[in-house]
Amino acid sequence: MGDLINAVILGIIEGLTEFLPVSSSGHMILANKLLGYRPDNEMIISFEIVIQLAAILAIALVYRKRIASLLGLSQETETIKGFSLNKQSRRKLNLVHIALGIVPALGMAYLLKDIIKGEGFNQTPVLLSLVAGGIYMLVAEWLVRSGRIRTVSDTMDDITYKQALIIGLLQCLSLWPGYSRSGSTIAGGMLVGTSYKAAADFSFLMAIPIMTVATGYELLENYKLIKGDNLPFFIVGFIVSFITAWLVIVLFLKNIQRIRLKHFAIYRFVLAALFWLFIMR
């Protein structure tokens, strides 16, 4: 029963933190420490892959119509002043934007995979990245709100190829464990002139292919560790992570104008303090 309760706790943490700019890796390291799991526990490593897969499915569900449109599987139409228009013909965002956004991080992750797995998840780099990511988000939001950076792309469909590429390059910051993929891309989008909402939408949409590739790669290496005796642990974590992630994404997008990046930055600083107290001391 204890392991099932831990599965619920970890599933909730993954679902809550994977797509918010607060660093899911930092949370998972802290949670595993408090729950008594060693960082080299192979079952926990596999479990984290499974609950991350659940979070990917949740975000794919939220953006299912947009994904279908990008893949040419949707023929949605809308009527404007009596004329029926195909939505796809009016959209600028396409698969090229997504590719520009994810290829830099995927390429860098492949080149640095040994360093990331070896040194990246050590305590000091994660603590520093929590703080550095918070400062990065504060600066990005301040530059936009002070008028030093002008918003030129109000919606995700207004994002240009150049903006998508720069966001993709800035996403490479998230390879530093604790920095946050969504934090690097949402703040990065604002730095290149996209609105907060457009940056969040693009960040979440990019998460689907990039996380699918990363999680799929890890799953191929660790799937043998998912055995019959620990299957309930994995199933419970998967279900809880999926439901939690779906709720978080829907609520975040619904209330996005009320929640600023500075709130997440302050939270990261608090998390860094807890990380230092419980992990590093």
UniProtKB/TrEMBL annotation:
<keyword id="KW-1133">Transmembrane helix</keyword>
<keyword id="KW-0378">Hydrolase</keyword>
<feature type="transmembrane region" description="Helical">
    <location>
        <begin position="124"/>
        <end position="144"/>
    </location>
</feature>
<comment type="function">
    <text>Catalyzes the dephosphorylation of undecaprenyl diphosphate (UPP). Confers resistance to bacitracin.</text>
</comment>
<keyword id="KW-0046">Antibiotic resistance</keyword>
<keyword id="KW-1003">Cell membrane</keyword>
<keyword id="KW-0812">Transmembrane</keyword>
<feature type="transmembrane region" description="Helical">
    <location>
        <begin position="202"/>
        <end position="220"/>
    </location>
</feature>
<keyword id="KW-0472">Membrane</keyword>
<feature type="transmembrane region" description="Helical">
    <location>
        <begin position="232"/>
        <end position="253"/>
    </location>
</feature>
<keyword id="KW-0961">Cell wall biogenesis/degradation</keyword>
<dbReference type="GO" id="GO:0050380">
    <property type="term" value="F:undecaprenyl-diphosphatase activity"/>
</dbReference>
<feature type="transmembrane region" description="Helical">
    <location>
        <begin position="259"/>
        <end position="279"/>
    </location>
</feature>
<feature type="transmembrane region" description="Helical">
    <location>
        <begin position="93"/>
        <end position="112"/>
    </location>
</feature>
<protein>
    <recommendedName>
        <fullName>Undecaprenyl-diphosphatase</fullName>
        <ecNumber>3.6.1.27</ecNumber>
    </recommendedName>
</protein>
<keyword id="KW-0133">Cell shape</keyword>
<feature type="transmembrane region" description="Helical">
    <location>
        <begin position="43"/>
        <end position="63"/>
    </location>
</feature>
<dbReference type="Pfam" id="PF02673">
    <property type="entry name" value="BacA"/>
</dbReference>
<comment type="similarity">
    <text>Belongs to the UppP family.</text>
</comment>
<dbReference type="InterPro" id="IPR003824">
    <property type="entry name" value="UppP"/>
</dbReference>
<keyword id="KW-0573">Peptidoglycan synthesis</keyword>
